[in-house]
Amino acid sequence: FDHTVICLTNAEVEQRNREYLKQLPGEEYVFDAVDTGSRTATDGFDYRSLQKLGYRDKVILKEGCRVMATVNTPGQRDRIVNGLMGKVVKIYWDGEEQPVVITSFDGLEKNVHVKRQKLTVYGRDGSIRFERQQIPLTVSYAATAHKLVGATLTGVWLYLPNSHGRQTEMIRQYWDSPWLQGVIYTALSRVGSREKIRVFPLRNTMDPQLMFPIFSMNPAASAFDALCAERDWLLTARQPVGPPPDVRDKERSCDSELLASVVDHITNLRREIENSKQKMLLLHHYTTSRRSAVSGEPINPVFYCAQNPALANKIDMLSVEGQKKFYDLLDEKLNLTLPRPNDEHLQRIVNDLANEAGDPSELRQSQTNPTLARDTAGVEEGDQELIGEREGSDLSHIEEPSDRMSAGGDLSDGSGTRSSQSDSESSEEGEDSDSDDAPFEIPPHQNDPPSDEPEFADQPFTVYEGNLYDVVSDYIKEKPHYRLVNNLEELKHQRKTCYLECRRAVSPRMEGREPKRGSRPDWRLWPTFTCPLARVKIIFRDGRCSFYPLRSANASADDWRCHDHFPGTEKCRSGTIPPDVIDDWIITLSARPCTSKSELKTMAHQKNMSGQYSAQTTEFLTQKGLSNYEAVKAALRSIKESRNSGLSVTAFTRSLTELSCGPDRLMGEVSDIIKGLDALEAGTHSARDLELARRADCCLVMENILCRTEPEKAGTGSNDLKAYSAVVSSPRMLRSLRSCRTMGIDGTYNLTHADLTMGIICSLPATSTAQPIGIVIMTK
């Protein structure tokens, strides 16, 4: 079998490696060390120690031989460490006529090209006295036990010194050396199987004296072993002698209180073991089933409750069904609900859920193993069975403050939130969806299909608290690339389900139908450019809205939560020009609105030449598709939407938000820039002050941009802007606030939107001209 020879001295190792190398076929390669500098006795350095440092005078190798790395090479691409073992694959010389040894090291997937490494010896004055370059490898058919500490070998042949039956004083002194203590254990423990160990020589004898001193017990260890045997209480213990049996037996039989206490103790112990077993199974279930959360790392609800002993005891008093229902609801609160509650709010929710989940005084009815196997071990197959029957009070009416996705003033770009096709659909009249008389729905679970629609996944990718109307209204404002299939007003009534469609996808109502000639372009013309995250189903129950993804999209929950499109790219703009070209034009025009048509066409051709477009687009551009004047003109007219006055408030505000500046930045970075500007003007600046002063005119947007819209007007499909305010400034302008006693505003009334105006906030000193502080964009 494959093996490594272990010897006890370096001399034996060298001898056996030479013999091994001679037996291998092939050419022998000799690598002499390349030395630079002089060796003088005054250096105080023992140059013979270079061998011990891994830089040998001469290295002899053959292709196919076993080798060991002798130095560490940190910071290199092909990093190796001292003691790493492998096999030489090939030896060659590179373009600089330097030897390279291709080595396959054990445990590394790729071969390593080992080149000469450099060792430098410095003098006391810091100058270079001597350098050596050498291949950091050595033959490792044989090695010392100390060199193999920490290594794992496939097999071991261990050679031990012997005297052929005679115990000489020399061998005895050799084995009495302190450095040999534990060396046999080190040598033999390199292999995981005793079948892969051979020891030479090994005497066939029953006399321990003939084995000495190769295998012997340390005297101190022998003394400790004897002391342990002497004090072993298992061997020295004796059965206590009691009183006559006739008296004690009667007293023991009458001690009913002691017997009852023992029974109670065993019962409590059994209950604790069952509780721990069930808790471990639940902990494992929620660890494996929940791999993502809407914000941050997922939190295991069982582990969260275990950190509160009082709460954990209350939960332990519930039945297994009650615990499962409680942890399902808590898992939803912790990992699927937006926004994630803070610790104080979450603790209040936990206590309320524990009180609602069941009466703590009712102990679980069954503690047998079959019940445990059904309720916990089989959570994947039995989730619906566990939660199918309600015990105790109703969990569906837990009232919590409705934390909305968007706080006052969600952004809107004026795009419609109602689909034209949905106007013809009938609405169901009835009571409000969040009334107390709403039908009971079981909470969403991992294996609970939504409304028997296999088209959608079983588990929601996110959950929002609040009624269906408010949640959906806020959601489509936050993500305007979605359109609501149903009428928004219908969500105020008894409807408990609605659907969202991505505007960059083909609606199911239009699938299979050919677009009419002369009609507006739509995504049926470009099936390869449509969004796979096409539809979302929203179900309202128990005061929460669960969002279910389209199963055929094969996307993760994080992909659905982050689903977005650059403003304007969700609409099909042209039936002639490919959408990826249109997308680039939209992105460019949003950053540089004055980009000309010729510049856009040139940009598209340059990107095509670099191979960044799809095959369909490349074919279109190669055939000079952009020379179609009318098609380009119509596409740009659709992008710029010159017929609709004003800009996109959402896109405009997003660009401002990227430059937002909060209190921490004002007190830190902006304050340092102002100090650097002061030092520059005073002539006392340093290099750092100069660097800071160069950023005195960088654009800053104050946080908390105000953007509120009016409710959608019937028949308009848009939301009017109600209130808007954004303040833009720079460190140089903010510096004027230091001496500001009187402040004024100059309204230029330059319209940037139908209802927006721009003004200049100024400091009005008594003895000089006005000094600008910031620019405000606001409603009239």
UniProtKB/TrEMBL annotation:
InterPro entries: P-loop_NTPase, PIF1_helicase. Residues 355-458 are annotated as: Disordered. Residues 412-424 have a biased composition (Low complexity). Residues 387-403 have a biased composition (Basic and acidic residues). It comes from the Eukaryota. Residues 425-439 have a biased composition (Acidic residues). This is ATP-dependent DNA helicase PIF1. The lineage of its organism: Eukaryota, Sar, Alveolata, Perkinsozoa, Perkinsea.
